[in-house]
Amino acid sequence: MAYDGVETPHGKVDRMLGGACTYISLAASYFTRVNIVAVVGEDFEQPDLDLLSSRGIDLTGLEQVPGKTFFWAGVYSEDMNDRTTLRTDLNVFADFQPKLPESYRKQPYLLLGNIQPELQRSVRAQMNGLRLVGGDTMNYWIADHRAALLETIAEWDFLLINDGEARMLSGENNLRRAADKILGMGPSTLVIKRGEYGAILFRRDGHFMAPGYLLQDVFDPTGAGDCFAGGFIGYLAGQGVNPRDGNIPHQDLRRAVIYGSVMGSFCCENFGVDRFRTLTRAEIDARYQEFKDCTDF
Amino acid sequence: MAYDGVETPHGKVDRMLGGACTYISLAASYFTRVNIVAVVGEDFEQPDLDLLSSRGIDLTGLEQVPGKTFFWAGVYSEDMNDRTTLRTDLNVFADFQPKLPESYRKQPYLLLGNIQPELQRSVRAQMNGLRLVGGDTMNYWIADHRAALLETIAEWDFLLINDGEARMLSGENNLRRAADKILGMGPSTLVIKRGEYGAILFRRDGHFMAPGYLLQDVFDPTGAGDCFAGGFIGYLAGQGVNPRDGNIPHQDLRRAVIYGSVMGSFCCENFGVDRFRTLTRAEIDARYQEFKDCTDF
To answer: Which tens digit of pLDDT belongs to each residue from B230-266?
Structure first.
């Protein structure tokens, strides 16, 4: 969980609620009950806790410790396809050792946000009775912590990454070849996110392509990938999927990709988490139907 | 019709059959009978004419005149998303004034390849009894011949362009806004091609998104956009669509976009037109089914 400073062509906010855990949990909360594990500093504000609580998110695993909350600041390019990081202050995140509350350990679904692979692995090791586990990573871990990352994802059912990360992880430029290699690393399901161009779900026996939602205005793309992850795992958890031998029903996985895309698209419609202050499940289902209508032939 | 010199990361060919008319007519020939209007020079070779004839393409409107055939040479970037033109020799194309044979003038469907807008307009003016007309253009005509281009497309039912051209023509960066503006210029149907990311069909009452086919290897993307156009108009002509007040049935338009995507994808599988030497309608229909399977949810 973090505070972010963000500048896009539509405006600038110096400090607002952010962080992968925030976006993932808000997005997932529309589909299932969510328990979070994260760390914040003494500066973390009550209204931000209240927003999460208002969505029914269980904060038992949220540690508040002396020091300041993780802070990130960045500025987006005119077309918002690129961003430059201006500042990253790890603060209390530097010494974070996630410990799961007893009440979390028997949960069946686990989504590991982008963090050191060793920590992702330690969280997974604290769970008993997982039905489905997966997560996200980023270029830094792929390039500089490759061995640890490979050990970590070997234990996952699914991996969610963007196209650049898939190319980097596999060493293949062609996405189909990249996916083949990554599916040999452990996860039986790979979702490659392509930003405004949508997402592709890869399994050994085929793939599924979801278009990117055509937004009229993109205010702030920060958190869109995490909201995709939240919608994806949230939908699967809400359905109560129970994979046997790693086989999640195909139709559920495809729908999870669409719900992920829906949540990512809403995220871009306002700065930071603001869209989630008013978003309703009815709006989500209406947009899901829009995806159906604009892809049917 | 042209000869092309092409270099991609997969190889180099100094001189091979090319040109918009060639690609469009080959692709369309799998769906309907095709009549072409074009010009070539004395150097045009019999085996190239034979390839077109073997696909049942009517060459009555193909002029052969003194001089050399149009020649283009280019080299593609490593990821094949960019290309640099090395040479453009207009040759016999410089003085081309297309004249339609009498036997063509009552045809119901017309696809105008990328050429001077005034010539596209003169071809349209020679037709009697058109049911459906549309075509392609490029950045050069949009930037430097805007008035003539706007007069020309005002008479079209559909326009097929890529995303960069749509942004240039509309002055809008967002594709949804760009499409709104272009649909105010005359065509009731707009297809925006996005290369490997697929295509979007826009109409006043909604849009349809087709993914790009995930090729394992892209050998040579030359002609893929023209093959898209050929598959699109070829399918609509083969169906015998008969729009009233500009209303082409939605399902036919959507399927035409998929067949366009299918033909564009096959084009990339080999150098120049080589894929069309062996391609069968059964392979086309199998790939159409693949599009259905990988987008259904």
So the answer is: 999 999 999 999 987 667 889 999 999 999 999 999 9
CA–CA dist A195, A211 (Å, integer):
10
Can you tell me which residue has the tokens 């020091």?
A: A67
Return all residues near A230 (Cβ < 8 A) that are at least 6 apart.
A23, A24, A25, A26, A27, A28, A29, A111, A260, A263
Name the closest residue on chain A to residue B177, using Cα atoms: A216
Pairing of strands B11-18, B2-8: antiparallel
- The reply to whether residue A292 touches residue B297, judged by beta carbons under 8 angstroms, is yes
Phi, psi of B95 (to 5 degrees): -110, 20
Residue with tokens 């093959």: B227
Which residues, including other chains, have CB under 8 Å from residue B131's CB and lie 6 or more apart?
B108, B109, B241, B242, B243
Token pair 């990360």: residue: A165
Q: Up-side HSE of residue B137: CA atoms within 13 Å toward CB?
A: 29
Angstrom distance (rounded) from CA B21 to CA B14: 20
Q: What is the mean pLDDT of chain A?
A: 96
Side-chain-side CA neighbours of residue B127 (13 Å): 23
CB A34 within 8 A of CB A56: yes
Largest Cα separation within chain B, whole Å, is 57
The alpha-helical segments, DSSP class H, found in B108-219 are 117-125, 139-144, 146-153, 163-170, 175-182
Which residues 154-183 of A have a C-beta within 8 angstroms of B? Answer: 173-177
Q: Is B205 on the interface with A (CB under 8 A)?
A: no
Query: How many residues does the structure list for chain B?
Result: 297
Cα–Cα distances (Å) from B207 to A186, A214, B117, in that order, read 38, 9, 27
Backbone angles phi, psi at B270, to 5 degrees: -155, 170
The answer to whether the Cβ–Cβ distance between B254 and A211 falls below 8 Å is no
Distance CA B187, CA A115 (A): 50
What phi-psi label fits residue A235: left (phi over 0), alpha (psi between -120 and 50 degrees) or beta? alpha
Distance CA B164, CA B172 (A): 10
Query: What is this model's ipTM?
Result: 0.93
